[in-house]
Amino acid sequence: MADQERRAIRLHPADNVAIALTDLPAGTELPELGVTTGAAIPRGHKIALGPVAAGAPVLRYGQIIGAATAPIAPGAHVHTHNLGMGDHRQDYAHGRDARPLPPAEEARSFLGYRRADGQVGTRNYLGVLTSVNCSGSVARFIAEAAERTGLLDGMENVDGVVPIVHGSGCGMAGQGEGYDTLFRTLAGYARNPNFAGILLVGLGCEVMQVPALVGAGRMRDDGSFRYMTIQQTGGTRRTVERGLAMLREMAAVANAARREPVPARHLVVGLQCGGSDGYSGITANPALGAASDLVVRHGGTTILSETPEIYGAEHLLTRRAARAEIGEALIERIRWWEDYTARNGGEMDNNPSPGNKRGGLTTILEKSLGAVAKGGTAPLNGVYRYAEPIRTPGFVFMDSPGYDPCSVTGQIASGATLIAFTTGRGSVSGYKPVPCIKLATNSEMYARMSDDMDLDCGDIATGAASIEEKGREIFEMFLRVASGARTKSEALGFGGVEFVPWQIGAVM
């Protein structure tokens, strides 16, 4: 049977399930797999390739994705009705499989904005950053007034004014894990090189004090940083007027910035997936992994995140740790999450979401194995806390929730200047000031949502493209977007509501 006509695929010789590549009615013969479907099996879902006893492991990618909760017959639909988590303990074998990638054979570059601290931006925005929700409306008033008054008229090199507002900053403890996490997030946005300048606006009486943020150290090395509080400035109207004056000063400086050729080692790419389906681990995720390896081979940085969505597959990362302590740091984060979910009345297998399950994913183990594929094969060079500045080039991990906007917010605060986002169900979002590239896992969704998707990876499933070919295509897209090409989410205007800092601790 030609590759284009494949109706199901077995991903690894050890697997006892295959994945349906089209909707399969009951009684469909699959001679290439030696089974006949015993029930209707939706596209992206799993088919048993042989009998599986109750309690026996089910394997996909050559890895355990759960255990049968009832006897499973050959050709049966394998999903939530007969598959559970089971025992998924693994040997972490820190560093056993770490193999440095060869350097790229050809030097590549993109057109970026060099910043005073040595970072390179892919965009040139001005930001109005808020310390607290109470200053959020005023930040938006300032940004709206800048647009209404034509503040950026004639300033072709400035991409726009972005209000960065959120729902926290007060009603929280003034010290501890939650405070430190928000502090890192705000400071990280202020320093992201996709901003040419930052105006920080507070109310004045909040827990997250503007003087504390400013006093912790220089927010930007280029001097393009201003701050004020509404209470000290004299209320809303005066704050908007003063904010416009400050933006006008910074805009003149920002407009003087020019794109220039910089080596590809300055790429910092956040790797994300959302609205995953049964194709994610077959097509877009491994293709993004191939692109991640190319970034690393060029000396750049890629950031994998979403700790709950590597759960059960963390052993694949610890085995690639460049040093044992890096693998141990990742397991420390896993143990933190087990405790965190337990004390909040949850469990790690609360993920996948209903949409993930409709797309064919059953357990978090299965979802995680597909999600980890985004990280390619490079050694794991570091493990970072949420929004912690990333100083190590190569492939790294940043701890975060699996909630996409929250995870991306942390990656941008850590220094990401591009986001690559795979989706099977069809996530729509954007993350100003950082462009987001949407990679569709299946061609049907890509055609249905073509205005939102930047690249179709579904042709991997049909055999029309290889993972390596699609990885190179994604890498070339990284260079184009980093040089100024707009993504679909940018063209649609996304990015106004996706700043979602991780809230940890009591709201008081």
Folded structure, characterized:
With 508 residues, the protein is of the alpha/beta class. It folds into three domains: 3-84, Archaeosine Trna-guanine Transglycosylase, Chain: A, domain 4; 125-256, 3-Layer(aba) Sandwich (Ribose 5-phosphate Isomerase B, Chain: A); 261-492, Rossmann fold (3-Layer(aba) Sandwich), CATH 3.40.50. The chain contains 15 helices and 23 strands. It has helices at residues 136-148, 177-191, 210-215, 230-233, 236-255, 284-297, 314-318, 324-343, 354-358, 364-372, 404-414, 443-448, 459-462, 467-482, 488-492; strands at residues 8-9, 17-20, 29-30, 35-36, 46-48, 57-60, 63-68, 77-78, 83-84, 109-114, 120-121, 125-130, 160-164, 195-202, 225-229, 260-263, 268-273, 301-304, 380-384, 394-398, 418-423, 436-440, 455-456. The strands form six sheets. Strands 19-20-18-17-21-22-23 form a seven-stranded parallel beta sheet, sandwiched between helices. Helix 6 (284-297) links the parallel strand 17 (268-273) and strand 18 (301-304). Helix 2 (177-191) packs across helix 11 (404-414).
Question: In a nutshell, what does this entry contain?
Answer:
This protein has 508 residues and is of the alpha/beta class.
How would the blueprint of this fold be written?
Elements: E1 8-9, E2 17-20, E3 29-30, E4 35-36, E5 46-48, E6 57-60, E7 63-68, E8 77-78, E9 83-84, E10 109-114, E11 120-121, E12 125-130, H1 136-148, E13 160-164, H2 177-191, E14 195-202, H3 210-215, E15 225-229, H4 230-233, H5 236-255, E16 260-263, E17 268-273, H6 284-297, E18 301-304, H7 314-318, H8 324-343, H9 354-358, H10 364-372, E19 380-384, E20 394-398, H11 404-414, E21 418-423, E22 436-440, H12 443-448, E23 455-456, H13 459-462, H14 467-482, H15 488-492
Parallel strand pairs: 12-13, 12-14, 14-15, 17-18, 17-21, 18-20, 19-20, 21-22, 22-23
Antiparallel strand pairs: 1-2, 2-5, 3-4, 5-8, 6-7, 7-9, 10-11, 10-16
